[in-house]
Amino acid sequence: MPLPDLSSAHPTRRPATSPPRRRGRAAGLVGAALAGAALAACGSSGPSASGTTTSTTPTTTAPSTTASGGSTPFYEVKTGQVTGLGTVLVDGQGMTLYMFEPDKQSGQSTCYGACAQGWPPLILPVGVATPVAGPGVQASLLGTTHRSDGQTEVTYDKWPLYTWVSDSQPGQATGQALNNLGGLWYVLSPSGRVITTKLRS
Q1: Where are the domains of the chain?
Q2: How far is the C-alpha of 75 from the C-alpha of 176, rounded, in Å?
Q3: What is the pLDDT of residues 31-85, one digit of tens each?
Q4: Of 143, 104, 140, 99, which is closest to residue 121 (Cα–Cα)?
Q5: Cα separation, 118 vs 109, whole angstroms
Q6: 94: left (phi over 0), alpha (psi -120 to 50) or beta
Q7: Which of 49, 141, 158, 198 has the smallest number of CB atoms closer than 10 Å to its CB?
Q8: 174-178 mean pLDDT
Q9: Residue 23: exposed, middle, or buried by beta-carbon count in 10 A (0-12, 13-18, 19+)?
Q10: Rounded to a whole number, what is the largest CA-CA distance in the chain?
């Protein structure tokens, strides 16, 4: 599967005071220079697990909407359906969430730089301390990890969670089983099980 043109991808961080980022993204080819930068970002030269401070704090209180009673927050973790994979974790906008094998279920992220551009981590806005458990997920498996850039990423069963820039709408999982930007990427079941099934192209 061709890698996306990350130069045109949307920013990986959501400002705390802005609405959730738009999901429409166009996939394209990635140059050799970007691939090299990606390997450096996700490989041995990137921040290691020891370079992050982790706080894996599951929440048992799980509001399903924003404080104002509006739409579901983008950082909510809930379940959705992907053809060929079944029920998987998705974010508040219904976009498929992934785990990164090099994270080794440590509760700490190893995906930074170009890696985080291709696979934006699920970040809590400033002022939000706990993740939101939506329909179908186990609140006890939700937690957080403090990234080396100071942001707080949502985890599930100690797997940091990410989206993939080539997924443009709910129900897609074009990143499933990809060996990309330093390691393999898979979706997770509501029980926290890593689903390694490969989708047919």
Answers
A1: 6-14+24-195
A2: 20
A3: 333 344 443 444 433 333 333 434 444 443 333 333 334 577 999 999 999 999 9
A4: 99
A5: 14
A6: left
A7: 198
A8: 98
A9: middle
A10: 46
